[in-house]
Amino acid sequence: MSEDTTAAPVSSEAPASAYSWYVLGVLVVVYILNFIDRQILSILAVDIKRDLALTDGQLGFLGGAAFAVFYALFGVPLGRLADRWHRVRLLTIGLLLWSTMTAASGFARNYLSLSLARMGVGVGEATASPTAYSLISDYFPSRQRATALAIYSSGLYLGGGVSLLIGAKISQVWDAAYPGGGFLGLVGWQAAFLAVGVPGVLLAGWVASLREPARQPDAASGTRHPLADFFVDLSMLLPPFTLLHALRRGPMAALVNVVMAAAMIGFALLMIKLTKNVPQWSAIAFGYYAVFSWASTLRRHDPATFRLIWGTPAFICTALGYGLVSLGAYALAFWAAPYAETVLKLPKAELAFVLGGSGALSGFLGVILGGRLSDWLRGRNPSGRILVVMFGILAPVVPIWVGFTTESALLFYAMNFLAGMFAATALGAAAATTQDLVLPRMRGTATASFFLATTLVGLGLGPYMVGAISEASGSLRVGVLSLIGVAPISLALLIYAYRSLPKAEATIAERAAAAAGGA
To answer: Around Cβ 504, how many Cβ atoms within 10 Å?
Structure first.
């Protein structure tokens, strides 16, 4: 199929309405709060480490896998639910849950209780992007979709930046007012969690007022209630139900499932022996096994969706390629503040203001410019958006190296700004590419699958990798610089995606029909 023929129907779509932009604005506010609740741990990390007697590896787990595994796994059935149920209602429920669990983090007294609260935040926040991506895809035409998704994604950077400012200010003011602990003995970092969790409950009422848009043609239908399907989908991820699903597919499927479970247990035991970190590798191994089990069951229950997501190399390589971009981005977002505080000896108030403000600005600029550029390139080249994702993995390399080897605070801040801005350009491009590779009824599932890579690869491994290498080498600087090593792997995946994407997009309906017909 030629470039002209693929572009024709796109240009005939009506532009987004004023209400569409209003909905996008509300979703951005939700995403800002989402990332405030998620990233506030970074600026509080040094205080939490001191009060709870944690290691860098344990901090990396709290900032990564403790959240990421549950965010990713619940995102799968919740993404499927977003494809069939009331998306506004689902987002409202999720917002209430993650805000409550963020507030509960303020009552944590030890490593275990804080880990459990972070897991709860992950479950609640898993509703956000599948519902938002699906809503945006129905409210905006294809030619504006990357821009709209990029604007939505700006909430990631605005929320991450604001979280540093809010967290530092609240914790310092509280500790100054109550040196020995205030209400219920809470100290500054605990008060900060409470202060950012409560507003989400109020915001839920605003979200509930949004109109649910009519789904585009091809919306899924079924005989069961969507909530019943949600629990079926959830059972595809949780042992021992995973084995029961495999047995229904036959003895060979059950054997493969058991072999995969054994392989993941062996992998976890090996990594635990090497790193002495039981929660990190137990969570990662469980997450990877659960994803394998879900994908295997999806292949039987919805072969068309499986074919367009897991059976499409362009989709997988785009998701994994961007997942490695996010590995570096999440690691930098978490460790930049503790690095500046402990290695460069910068005062918390200063680094929170500069890193928070520059992080919000750099991420916002990067994701908006990247989204606009990727839409422009997409109009001229079916694989044009992949070029922006490639830029997002290669361009930050030099700023990371310079920023984390200098002793100059000014140069560190400047390089951190550039690294964040360059990495942010990739998000809208990667997200829109994965949406373009599936049918409308599959968008929630596609979003969940995309975020499996950004969370189980990026967030699940990035912050922990830096912390673990810091522990092993005795240098947080070495831990951060190790992130550069993922660039060649990401680039190789993206080159393959660039070459295979045009054919994959041109044959979406054909491959979906063939998969459904062969089921």
So the answer is: 21
